[in-house]
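#structure-requests
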Amino acid sequence: MHASRMERPELTDTQPEIFASSQPLLHIITWIRKALATVMQAICLVTGFSTAITLMLGVVYRYILQSSLAWSAELPSILFPWFVMSGATLAAITKQHLGIDYFVAKLKGGLRHWVSLGIHVLLVVVLTGVAVISLDMLEILSRQMTPVLYWPRSWAFAGVPIGLFALAMAVLTEAAAILFKLPMEKRTNKGD
């Protein structure tokens, strides 16, 4: 039996009504994070395995069958942005990404809360801004085709804005949890 993944914070005299009224928001945030994690995990697994299988087939064809698969070099380059962006989003959701919180951790109480919230809001703005700007690249890349598979190059690059929007959504849910002082778990993947 596993203990509940979400632990209730210790309630002070001023918090019980805040925590009780934020339960629906906590459920919404948890649902969004789980849905995002499920989608990103599926994309990461499919693109990762597809890349590995494609590269392995390329090696088998080249060194065992003395032939070549022309598309075996092209397909992994199309899948790679999807793999990276889904992995980055998944790492952010499960809190397994690199982070330096040394200075924020040194801050006291309310100041730590507001600085952390400010950092998360800034991240949402930057991630969303870069995602919106990267959408312009999709139009340009949609007119360029890959040489062997003859797929639009936008298929590969589409992983970038989609991944940035997903990452912004993950950071936004974390910001909402910080703002309303919701009991978010340290990691969503505890090796179950």
